[in-house]
Amino acid sequence: MTFTIDGKQVLAALDRYLEESRQAKKPVIHQETIETIHEQLDLAAIFREGGLAGSRLDRFLSTYLDNTTRLHHPGYLAHQVGNPHPLAALGSLIDGVTNNAMAIYEMGPAAAAVEFFMVNQLLNRVGWPHMPVDTKQRLSFDHGAGVLTHGGSLANMTALMTARNHLDPALRETGCAGGLAILAPDSCHYSVSKTAGILGIGEKNVVGLPTDRMGRIQPDQVVKSIEKARKKGRSIVALIANACATGTGLFDPIDAIADICKEHSIWFHVDGAHGGSLLFSKKYRHLLAGLEKADSLILDAHKMLRTPTVCAALLVKQAAFLDHAFQHDAGYLFHDKYQPGFDFISQTVECTKAGLGLRFFLAFAALGENGMAKYIDSCVDLTCSAHEYIASQPDFEVPYAPESNILCFRYTNSDTNQLAIRDRLIQEKNFYLSSTSILDRRFLRMVIISPATTLDDIKALVHAIRKTAKLV
Q1: In this structure, are 294 and 417 located in the same domain?
Q2: Which of 330, 363, 396 is the last residue in one of the domains?
Q3: Do 288 and 340 fall within a single domain?
Q4: What's the pTM value of the predicted model, to 2 decimals?
Q5: Would you say residue 314 lies in a domain?
Q6: pLDDT tens-place string over residues 40-98
Q7: Same domain, yes or no, for 158 and 257?
Q8: In whole angstroms, what is the distance from residue 311 CA to residue 281 CA?
Q9: 248: Cβ contacts below 8 Å, ≥ 6 apart
Q10: What value, to the nearest 5°, has the Cα angle with vertex 382 and ends 381 and 383?
Q11: 339 and 105 in contact (C-beta within 8 Å)?
């Protein structure tokens, strides 16, 4: 009964929260100091005494929610953090209560089965043969594979570890003696250099590829980079393309790069943490043309697929490469046993793993594939409309036409003032933008991801920027 009573209070508070956010009845962002929030929540007393329930729980929830950043708010335009569907969020609750560490099948058969299903749905979308449900048939024919991970950084690391071990299986045991390199544009996500450091490849051995002025790889220059690296005695672990770049939302020409990698026998990895969601788009899927030629791909469901954080997917074209990337030795886990399912622990760095597939699946269970496509297309469509409107304003500058739901723009002013404008907007609490650097200049950056956002909100933002610019 206690769970039911507390649960009703929590759900009622969250229901109000969603309505307040969508209707912009509360600020999009509200930042107090850590000390202030500690005091407002009365953390010390609750920690000491326990018994958080009834009216005290109501006060706690109200205070906590008032100190959140409201992603469902129409003025939320800052970062690539998704707008989770409420049903998908309930998937997180179900997983939290059941607490099945499903990397081992017997520790979460339902969770593992749902993840298996969702990985196969993604493989089908890419165009790779999916994993056989009869796991005894695994690797008996060429098929893809994959695993859900806690975030894109971990997915990228797992992909590049798989590529490194495919290049030289002995490296897993002997370590890297040097001479390895990863080729990637400077616009690639910072997790790539972080991974290079972790895997012993070395951050300085992430070699930049030639790009155009907006940071997109130039295919006609890639071969020179490959030849240059090999002449220096480097073995290329992987070549990475963006789908899309985190800062700008622009896509590398995947198809052309894939053909080059195949010709030169190089593992081709596509970082589709954000833009990989266009696999489900009816209108913008063409931006991923050639994706089926890649060797590995990641995408974040918690960005554009209405799934709560964190839920990313690593997919590989050949299951054998992922299956052989890890070898474990733990007598309490790995032994002969009745096995009606599949242990994902052999595919991932993680041992204890949440049931990420359930929250991912429930987003589609709520919207269906057509509903998800409609949401994705509407976000990109609105970004294109925002581009047209802002580009038409004489006191604004837009450096490129968007290819996703990310748009960078700039008010006529100095670099310093772009950041000052952003800070002032955040203090006013009606709009929340991010910022990035392009061509050594500072730009404001919007990510249209809330279904509540409209073109009228974008117009109101432009008005607010003009008003704010006079005060900074």
Answers
A1: no
A2: 363
A3: yes
A4: 0.96
A5: yes
A6: 999 999 999 999 999 999 999 999 999 999 999 999 999 999 999 999 999 999 999 99
A7: yes
A8: 19
A9: 187, 214, 215, 400, 406, 408, 436, 438
A10: 90
A11: yes
pLDDT per position as a tens digit, 308-346: 999 999 999 999 999 988 776 665 566 778 889 999 998
Cα four-point dihedral sign 389, 392, 398, 400 = positive
Residue 79 domain flag: no
Which pLDDT score, from 0 to 100, does residue 331 have?
59
> CATH number for the domain including 373?
3.90.1150.10
| Rounded Cα gap, residues 109 and 180, in angstroms | 40
Continuous segment of H or E residues that includes residue 423: helix 415-428
Q: Are 409 and 444 in contact (CB under 8 A)?
A: yes
Any bridge partners for residue 148, and if so which?
313
Domain extent for 311: 93-363
The 10s digit of each residue's pLDDT in 447-470 is 999 999 999 999 999 999 999 998
Residues 77/432, Cβ–Cβ less than 8 Å: yes
In a domain, 283, yes or no: yes
The residue with tokens 């496509």 is 373
Length of the chain: 472
* Alpha carbons 279 and 439: distance in angstroms, whole number: 30
Q: Are residues 243 and 271 in the same domain?
A: yes
What is the total count of domains within the chain?
3
| Angle ∠(24,302,428) on CA atoms, nearest 5 | 30
Q: Decide: helix, strand or coil at residue 155.
A: helix
Whether residue 109 sits in one domain with residue 20: no
How far apart (Å, rounded) are the C-alpha atoms in residues 206 and 229?
A: 11
Q: How many angstroms separate the first and last alpha carbons of the chain? A: 55
H/E stretch holding 17: helix 2-22
382 and 352 share one domain = no
User: Residue 296 in contact with residue 270, Cβ under 8 Å?
Assistant: yes
Measured between alpha carbons, how far is residue 2 from residues 14, 51, 63, 311 in Å? 18, 11, 22, 30
Q: What is the pLDDT of residue 334?
A: 67
Contact 71, 307 (CB under 8 A): no
| Residues 113 and 170 both lie in one domain | yes
In 117-179, DSSP assigns E strands to 145-149
Which residue shows structure tokens 């985190």? 246
